[in-house]
Amino acid sequence: MTTPKVLTFEEWVNRHPELVEKAEYEASLEIKFVDCPDCGGDGEHSCPYCGQDMECRTCDGSGKVEGKRKEDFLKEWYNDEKKRDKIRWFKFAGTDIAA
Known about the structure:
- It contains three helices and four strands; from the N terminus they run H-H-E-E-E-E-H.
- By secondary structure, the protein is of the alpha+beta class.
- The chain has two domains: 7-30 and 68-92; 33-67, no CATH class.
- The chain is flat, with a radius of gyration of 20 Å.
- The model has no long low-confidence stretch (mean pLDDT 84).
């Protein structure tokens, strides 16, 4: 039994135009800039080695990062579907996922 072909991200997007519209809508609701997840919006954090305060590299000291974009939503949904399909395939094939 051969493993089924996994669609590339681009192939998946082309097969699901309705999700492109949904992702555009979700992105329009998303806050454009959110607090940086690494520094909590402070713009700086303590060095893990010496404890000295330093500018956050993730947000370049601004304390803000861009919110999710349309592509971020689509890639998240694509990866979720790939995981579900992998589980379905292994159940169908009667093999252990960890194998």
